[in-house]
Design goal:
The protein contains four helices and five strands. By secondary structure, it is an alpha+beta fold. It has a single domain, classed as Aminopeptidase. The N and C termini lie far apart (32 Å).
Amino acid sequence: MDKREVVKNRKISSIQFANLRITVGWNSYSEKLETALQNSYCQYSIVEEDRLIGFVRVISDHSLHAYIADLMVDPRYQKQGLGRLLLSRAVEDLKRENFPFIELIYNPELETFYKKLGFEIIGAGIIRNGKNQ
């Protein structure tokens, strides 16, 4: 298997997930990650030498909405197209499953990245009640 292959629903441990979150500068929320992984609609990962280097998951109502969450690439592997590979694979699969709405919350500095992958900005107004990443 190509070590840079995107694999759907590979078994990822909460420790691997927490380590990648910490590596990208996010809070690990280690006590909640196992539940988050189990409750995901699906997930996509890239592993190199047993280390999680790229990840994205999808949260869904299984009908209309698929929400892209936790798109992360280890900073040592960024700018190599891995984020694009992960997101493209997720979107392709979700379109094949006929989800009419594939959505995400993005960092404005990544707007160009998401537009290149077919996303469009539909309006401002993200409201968060709770902790940041």
